[in-house]
Amino acid sequence: QVQLVESGGGLVEPGGSLNLSCTTSGFTFSQYPMMWFRQAPAKKRALVAFIHESGRNTYYGDFVEGRFTASRDNAKKTAYLQMNSLKPEDTAVYYCKVPISGYDYWGQGTQVTVSS
């Protein structure tokens, strides 16, 4: 079955960096785009990044402002989100998602807290 497991979250000070990973199994990773979303308390889930199956095309939410980079390693079936210059407003649970045959598969999420 399709499984997505996020890792790499944690507590970081403003201006710091984190690198999130989304390790996958149960589907042909190289054939599907991957997405990162985030959800802060009392807010809607928001798209953070999209990466094409080839890894050559990426799109980001407006709030990213060049601070985050999505990448993937198709051999390792893993997607990454490098986050730099983190701000307190980046605090949220971060999820990865893959759409397969009209169904969205989600990971369980990883908490990112940006605070001094």
3D structure, described in words:
- This protein has 116 residues and is mainly β.
- Helices cover 0% and strands 53% of the residues.
- The protein contains no helices and 11 strands.
- The chain has strands at 3-7, 10-12, 18-25, 34-39, 46-51, 58-60, 68-73, 78-83, 92-100, 103-106, 110-114.
- Strands 2, 4, 5, 6, 9, 10 and 11 form a 7-stranded mixed β-sheet that branches. Strands 1-3-8-7 form a 4-stranded antiparallel β-sheet, with no helix packed on it.
- Strand 5 (46-51) and strand 6 form a beta hairpin.
- The mean pLDDT is 97.
How would you describe the shape? globular
Uncertain residue segments: none
Average pLDDT level: 97
Structural class: mainly beta
The largest β sheet comes out as: 7 strands, mixed
Which percent band covers the strand fraction?
over 45%
The beta-strand count equals 11
What value does the Rg take, in angstroms? 13 Å
Approximate helicity band:
under 10%
Task: Annotate the secondary structure layout.
Elements: E1 3-7, E2 10-12, E3 18-25, E4 34-39, E5 46-51, E6 58-60, E7 68-73, E8 78-83, E9 92-100, E10 103-106, E11 110-114
Parallel strand pairs: 2-11
Antiparallel strand pairs: 1-3, 3-8, 4-5, 4-9, 5-6, 7-8, 9-10, 9-11
